[in-house]
Design brief:
10% strand
């Protein structure tokens, strides 16, 4: 005979014998598992298969059968609120008179009004800016709702211990995902399980983790059980080991917010469990201790890689919150544009294009904050309705976690509360609830939370409410069973077929993009060749899309209706004013309209915002054979980065003339820096354009040239400037036994000189300090001031001047100094022949043939000059 108290056994004998609940649970588990293992359910065809499974499971569970004599609890208002929320989403898809839209959603009405100018006026339109997308999300939520109602009712009808059966699929899938993640980690791969993104992988694990922990503890705490104590302990530790594997998978994912959310869920369990047992100051101390333990785990558990990833969180500006803050800031403008009824569930990606001003090299399909995105898409009315649905579910779980007298019920509620806490935290910085598998899992947990009793179980329910709940669930099941196969049929058989798509679209199954792509391919990849009627039809469906306006504009260009085309382009720029792909498409259209300046200005705007499209834009300039001066005048922003990038690509493709123009433009605008100067000089030197290189260097120096290429052909001869790395500056090749540096404590003129100190370890053949100078034919005087200090051996330090390309044409040496000398002038006059363009000036020391030949001591060099003997001022 069972020792379990009768109060725990609330299930009737008829329900215990029924196959419906277990079969429904199996089908729901198949749906969830398939969604998880198919990229989180993000692909439309696999997800519709999941919806079909949900519909079948719901139909099987709710199909009319004789009601039990006693029902575990009243259905409550949740099904009605759920129906109201689904009706609200359907209302967003319902065509309304445009005049009414002007009241309900003025921004939506203004965009629709713009269609009249191109002969595509509309009289009726839905609130959703992309109703086909909202329709897809409507059926997503129908699937979530059907699963929620079934799990909620199963939880209410089953006994306290049997309710854990609803948790096993969640924990089981999480363990499998964690095992895959750990295997990926051991193989050195990115850890994301079957998901595309590590954060969504972490989102699944963080929801399952509290439930697994709670289940293990619940088994340990059971006082009445048919299972032997040893077996019960083994079961508990096996489940807790699974929880450990889930947590290890969460850690290996390197998801920062996933790790924080996982700890947050565990904290919620511990804090609520403590709150159910302690009061007053004891509770405060206990909560503080739990918080300290969680903080300890947060500081010492993460791997070095995870710690490094946390480093980006404290960034400022556009990088704040890893780039999320500027997106949230821009999203607030979207919320303000559609404040009451929103832009339509699932339409953020299109609606946000108009308001995005930051990180424009990325298109954001999601706001990376579920609360903000839902507010933008649903509006205040829809978000409040969603809150009215979700909050009571969460509150019921938290109440049951602290008030329930049954241990299994209390721990199940604690697990649900921890899961809600985890996903609630993660949703602040990510979009887990927009991933179908994770959203379905959340609805499943919500059903458990809504089903657990928060207090004493009522003896009976109101049959009318139970019947209403069943009728709602069966209608949802019928919709899923009809809709999901239709979507699969359309996607697999009729996708891209304009005629079939038109038929399906009457029932909300639309794919305008696929039709336009198919028609474009059918016209040799030319979107402008698609019939104008088809382009305007697509535009009427989605007037918020810059792409649809671009397509229509291209069609008008082909038809010769230039004024209409220009209007379409103005709409393009209004709906995506900062989005590079949008600006580039508009630029192409303006170019076809022969408005070259406007086309270049739009590309300049892209260059101003991001470097992602540099190669694409600069290659387009070359492909269209645009003159460099036209690009410099209109195709570049007033921005140093873009100007430098343009010069570098001209050098890369070996366009010498264009590179010279771009160099002068950069210098004239003050954009040239030392790195760019050295790159350009290297480009010219490789092409043996030595005079041009010297002139470019002189122009870059500007007032800092100090007579260079005017009265002196050596740069930085007084060593007052840091060494620049320029081909026309001093080059120092390091050696271990020679120390070479600018010396601020010794100078012949100015404040610096060059010091060379020999360590006395080698009989060195030294020529490791040199400078290259451009010269023209004529007589030159080389001079330098040298000071020495205890410079040993008979071979001292002097200079060598030679033509590096032809030493036989020019190779002269100066006097060499040894010992100790105060500042002494060394000079040499020589002739430069007509074939010499570059000379190399080296500081040299030849090896000594004496026994005592290891050179030590120091030499200082300053005031090095190279002047022409028959001066003709040559200004560059």
């Amino acid at each position: 005979m069972s020792t379990t108290p009768k109060s725990f056994e609330t299930i009737s004998s008829s329900d215990r014998a029924s196959f419906r609940a277990p079969l429904a649970l199996v089908l729901l588990s198949l749906a969830l598992g398939y969604a998880i293992f198919e990229d989180g359910g993000t692909l439309l065809t696999p997800w519709n298969i999941c919806l079909l499974l949900i519909g079948l499971s719901t139909f099987i569970y709710w199909w009319p059968r004789k009601l039990p004599a006693a029902v575990t609890a009243d259905a409550g208002p949740a099904p009605v609120v759920l129906l109201l929320f689904l009706s609200y989403i359907a209302f967003q898809c319902l065509p309304l008179p445009v005049a009414l839209l002007g009241i309900l959603s003025p921004e939506r009405a203004r965009i629709l009004d713009s269609l009249a100018r191109v002969g595509a006026p509309v009289r009726f339109a839905p609130l959703a800016i992309t109703p086909a997308t909202t329709f897809i999300y409507l059926f997503r939520f129908i699937g979530y709702s059907a699963a929620f109602l079934a799990i909620r009712d199963v939880t209410r009808r089953w006994s306290a211990r049997r309710r854990w059966l609803a948790v096993i699929p969640l924990a089981g899938f999480a363990v499998l995902e964690a095992a895959l993640g750990l295997w990926q980690n051991s193989a050195g791969e990115e850890v994301n399980g079957t998901y595309v993104n590590r954060n969504h992988f972490a989102g699944l694990l963080e929801m399952a983790l509290p439930l697994a922990v709670a289940y293990g503890i619940a088994i340990l705490n059971r006082k009445y059980s048919r299972t032997a104590p040893a077996m019960r302990i083994a079961q508990a530790f096996a489940i807790l080991a699974c929880a450990g594997a889930i947590f290890a998978g969460l850690l290996s994912s390197l998801s920062k917010m996933g790790f924080v959310a996982g700890l947050g869920g565990l904290f919620a369990i511990a804090a609520l469990a403590t709150a159910g047992r302690l009061r007053g100051w004891k509770l405060g101390f206990a909560i503080a201790g739990i918080a300290a333990l969680v903080l300890f785990l947060f500081l010492f558990l993460p791997s070095d890689e995870l710690v490094a990833r946390f480093g980006g969180v404290a960034a400022q500006g556009d990088a704040a919150a890893e780039g999320r803050w500027p997106i949230w800031r821009d999203s607030l403008h979207l919320v303000a544009a559609y404040p009451v009824f929103g832009s339509g569930l699932g339409t953020y990606a299109v609606a946000f294009l108009k308001y995005q001003t930051s990180i424009v090299d990325r298109l954001f399909d999601y706001a990376h904050n579920d609360y903000l995105q839902l507010t933008a898409e649903l509006g205040a009315a829809g978000f409040l309705l969603l809150a009215a649905l979700v909050l009571p579910v969460g509150v019921n779980a938290f109440r049951a976690a602290t008030r329930s007298r049954d241990p299994d019920t209390r721990w199940l509620a604690l697990g649900c509360a921890g899961a809600f806490t985890a996903i609630g935290l993660h949703s602040l910085l990510d979009f887990n609830t927009y991933i179908p598998a994770n959203a379905l899992m959340l609805a499943w947990i919500g059903g458990i939370s809504a089903g657990v009793p928060a207090g004493p179980t009522p003896a009976s329910a109101q049959p009318a409410r139970v019947f209403a709940q069943r009728r709602i669930a069966l209608w949802l099941a019928a919709l899923l069973i009809v809709y999901s196969p239709a979507w699969v049929l359309f996607r697999t058989v009729f996708r891209g077929d304009p005629r079939a798509e038109g038929v399906f679209c009457h029932f909300g199954i639309c794919d305008t993009d696929a039709v336009i792509v198919a028609e474009t391919l059918g016209h040799a990849g030319n979107a402008a060749a698609v019939p104008e009627a088809d382009l305007l039809k697509a535009l009427r469906r989605d007037p918020n899309s810059p792409d649809r306006w671009c397509d229509a504009g291209d069609g008008f260009v082909r038809a010769g209706q230039w004024s209409q085309a220009l209007y379409c382009l103005s709409r393009v720029l209004a709906l995506g004013p900062n989005i590079p792909p949008v600006l580039l498409r508009a630029s192409d259209s303006y170019f076809r309209l022969h408005q070259i300046g406007r086309a270049l200005e739009l590309r300049a705007r892209v260059l101003q915002e991001t470097d992602t499209y540099d190669d694409l834009i600069f290659n387009w300039y070359r492909t269209e054979q645009l003159p460099t001066n036209a690009v410099l005048a209109n195709g570049l922003p007033e921005d140093a980065r873009a100007g430098r990038a343009y010069l570098r690509i001209l050098m890369r493709v070996d366009e010498s003339r264009g590179a010279a123009e771009a160099w002068n433009w950069n210098v004239g605008h003050g954009y040239a820096d030392l790195r760019l100067a050295n790159d350009y000089l290297g480009f010219l030197m490789n092409r043996q354009q030595y005079e041009a290189a010297a002139q470019a260097w002189a122009r870059y120096l500007g007032p800092r040239r100090d007579g260079y290429m005017e009265t002196d052909w050596i740069f930085n001869g007084d060593f007052e400037n840091e060494f620049s790395g320029s081909p026309f500056d001093w080059r120092i090749d390091p050696r271990d036994d020679v120390d070479v540096a600018r010396d601020a404590g010794m100078a012949h003129s100015g404040a610096h000189s060059l010091r060379i100190r020999f360590a006395g370890n080698e009989n060195i053949n030294y020529s490791y300090v040199s400078e290259t100078a451009f010269v023209k034919p004529g007589k030159y005087r080389f001079e330098a001031w040298v000071r020495t200090d205890h410079l040993t051996t008979d071979e001292g330090v002097g200079f060598r001047v030679l033509d590096p390309a032809a030493p036989s044409a020019l190779d002269v040496r100066t006097e060499r100094l040894t010992g100790t000398n105060d500042w002494k002038r060394i000079e040499r006059v020589f002739d430069v022949g007509p074939k010499t363009q570059l000379i190399l000036i080296q500081v040299v020391r030849q090896p000594s043939l004496k026994f005592d030949n290891k050179i030590a001591g120091a030499v200082w060099i300053d005031s090095v000059k190279l002047t022409r003997e028959n001066p003709q001022k040559l200004a560059y």
